[in-house]
Amino acid sequence: MLYEVTIDGKNYRLDLSRADGRWSCRLDGRAVEVEAILARPDVLSLRIGNLAYEVKSERVANDLHLWVGSTRFAVEVRDPRSLRGRSRTADHQGPKKITAPMPGKVVRLLLREGDSVEAGAGVAVVEAMKMQNEIKSPKKGTVQKILVSEGTPVNAGDVLAIVE
Amino acid sequence: MFKKILIANRGEIAVRVLRACHEMGIAAVVVYSDVDRASLHVRKADEAYPIGAAAASESYLNIPKILDVAARSGADAIHPGYGFLSENAKFAQACADAGVKFIGPTAAAMEAMGSKTRARQAMEKAGVPFVPGTSRGVESFAEAESAAAKIGYPVMLKAAAGGGGKGMRLVHAPDQLKSSLEAARSEADRSFGDSEVYIEKAIVNPRHIEMQILADEHGNTVYLGERECSLQRRHQKVLEEAPSPIVDPDMRRRMGEVAVRVAQAANYTNAGTVEFLVDQQKNFYFLEMNTRLQVEHPVTELITGLDLVHLQIRIAAGERLRFTQSDVSIRGHAIECRIYAEDPDNNYFPSPGKITLLLAPSGPGIRRDSGMYEGWTVPIDYDPLLAKLIGYGTDRDQAIARLTRALSEYFVGGIKTNISLFRRILRDADFRAAKLDTGFLDRMLKRTEDTPLDSRKSEVAVIAAGIFAALGSPSSGMANGVSSGDSGTTEATPSKWKATSRREALR
């Protein structure tokens, strides 16, 4: 199996295969001795050579995080053969979805459809646990669509608006 | 002794009280709001009653509904926990009127301590040391001006009915007084429905140290040592420890005796806490009395060997304290971290959501009081406190070492927590040297920390990411060869068939 993995803006090419319960692994073409046990879902006990690591995996909103010990890595994994994987990498241009980073309630909309917006300007205010948080636009453009109204409850990752 | 206790709270404190009930052979009745059916306190209870909508005013703050459950369940006492109705004198009185024992002080003692200005007047009579200031609310700007000039700048404006930093303003110079007074008044009015504001001398970079007291209903009052609570953010405590690194036995005795005088002046019964501000010369000043069990009570329990909730229940049942002041001794050191559902990368904004993975620490010297479990969705409606992690050791250094070790084992996946903040605090040189004051945390957070990129760990993450994806681990979202973008619908049981067939096909 071939994966493209991005961590901190750096791309790695990972070639993994398994036979008789043993992994063989090439990282950017270099052979790495790996042995792994899935201790429970989302927890991997990993040996690289004789060094032991416990790696935890979680998804927060739309982000995949891997924790090596107490260090967190935001990770993107793509399967270069999967069409879906490719389409995700081309996400930087075109309309950008603005999503709720946490579950809560939309208490205020700061812009209307058709308004122009600067990068970093507030689009909506979401309240959770008695605190209000301004959700900002990641890019300059025009508010193409607003998908929530004031009072709407939202989940983490729900799309609030689309900026073109 | 009581047969059945109603716990009028939720979260970790409801579980804490419930455990004490079960340890004492008492049945535990809980109440829950619409969003708390799946909460841990309901899972562990003997009886559970729904009391209404998520909004606290409809449920956990609703006195008639809670008293109705007390009557229906036949509970003979109510433990209020902290927050919610715990310091509500009307509730304490309503319990008394309904013939249910309120586990806490009387309504009269609560009222005496509830208003900061009234408490101050009572305490002046008892000879308790105060921060210089007005014992009464200021009526006019002119009065405020002359009072501030007499006390000397900087001064602090405080709401008489205040708490949690609301209606507080620090004033450095006379020209800021007018606008600050107006702002404090209107904020106090909005927050508490009472615009009374008084003036105190501002103590620069004080320590916040509090004394635990316990009083039975037969006139015996003891102090159980202090807690250092100087690590705060937005006037909320984040980490507490006992004993305080700066308090020696003589200072402890003097503070303890003042705390006992404070309690006796108000005819106080049950557990309570007297808060002090301590200046750089170690002078201590009475701040206020909290008429409830505190969030941070476990650190006192660990260093005294006493169970405060057991004792609260025994006192409320009319028992006498079975020990005297000279029996109380302090042994070792304890530190508590308040684990909140909040996002360190987004100014510690609350971060509710579903807990997808929970790995909890244990081992020597570790106590964990938690209200969460794996698979539970943290509701958006309440305070974001999830759990308290407490480390205990023979001395402060060992407590820090054990807590640091335990934090490295603690993992809460799927939501953001402030666990990383505690790692940073515990390795901070000033914290280790016990140079603490209420400005410590803001100063520490202003310094940006350079974390050099560990390329070996990055490679470990890369390899792990690939293996997770190949095995179709739930959060990898790669079970079907597609990256799931929807957090709510991540498959719990990935298809092994599909993963296997992919592996076979790609070989």
* Structural class estimated from helices and strands of chain B: alpha+beta
Q: Largest interface: which pair?
A: A-B, 65 and 62 residues
Number of beta strands of chain B: 22
Largest β sheet strand count, sense and barrel closure of chain B: 8 strands, antiparallel
Continuous helix count of chain A: 1
Count of runs of 4 or more consecutive helical residues of chain B:
17
Per DSSP, what share of the residues of chain B sits in E-state strands of 2 or more residues? 15-25%
**Terminal Cα span of chain A:** 36 Å
Q: Please give the share of residues in helix of chain B.
A: 25-40%
Structural class of chain A: mainly beta
**What's the average pLDDT of chain A?**
86
Strand portion of chain A: over 45%
Strand order of the largest sheet of chain B: 13-12-9-10-11-14-21-19
Element pattern of chain A in H and E? EEEEEEEEEHEEEEEEEE
Shape of chain A: elongated
Instruction: Please describe the biggest sheet of chain A, giving its number of strands, its sense, and whether it closes into a barrel.
Output: 9 strands, antiparallel
Nearest-integer average pLDDT of chain B: 91
Stretches with pLDDT under 50, minimum 5 residues of chain A = 85-92
What does this structure look like?
The complex is a heterodimer of chains A (164) and B (507). Chain A has 164 residues and is mostly beta strands. Chain A has one helix spanning 83-89; strands at residues 2-7, 10-19, 22-27, 30-32, 34-40, 43-48, 51-60, 63-68, 71-78, 96-99, 104-109, 116-117, 122-128, 131-136, 141-146, 153-154, 159-163. In chain A, the strands form 3 sheets. In chain A, strands 4-3-2-1-9-8-7-6-5 form a 9-stranded antiparallel β-sheet, with no helix packed on it. In chain A, strands 10-17-15-12 form a 4-stranded antiparallel β-sheet, with no helix packed on it. Chain A has a 4-stranded antiparallel β-sheet with strand order 14-13-11-16, with no helix packed on it. In chain A, a hairpin with a 2-residue loop joins strand 3 (22-27) and strand 4. Chain A is elongated. The two termini of chain A are 36 Å apart. In chain A, 32% of the residues are buried. Chain B is 36% helix and 22% strand. Chain B has helices at residues 11-23, 40-44, 63-73, 89-98, 107-114, 116-125, 141-151, 177-192, 249-265, 297-304, 308-316, 396-409, 419-427, 429-432, 440-446, 455-471, 496-506, and strands spanning 4-7, 27-32, 47-50, 77-79, 101-102, 155-159, 169-171, 197-201, 207-215, 221-233, 236-242, 270-278, 284-290, 333-340, 342-343, 349-350, 353-354, 357-359, 366-370, 377-378, 385-393, 411-413. An 8-stranded antiparallel β-sheet of chain B has the order 13-12-9-10-11-14-21-19. Chain B has a 5-stranded parallel β-sheet with strand order 3-2-1-4-5. In chain B, a hairpin with a 5-residue loop joins strand 15 (342-343) and strand 16 (349-350). In chain B, helix 4 packs antiparallel against helix 5 and helix 12 (396-409) packs antiparallel against helix 13 (419-427). The radius of gyration of chain B is 25 Å and the shape is globular. The chains are: A mainly beta (164), B alpha+beta (507). Chains A and B meet through strand 1, strand 2, strand 3, strand 5 and strand 6 of A and strand 16, helix 16 and helix 17 of B.
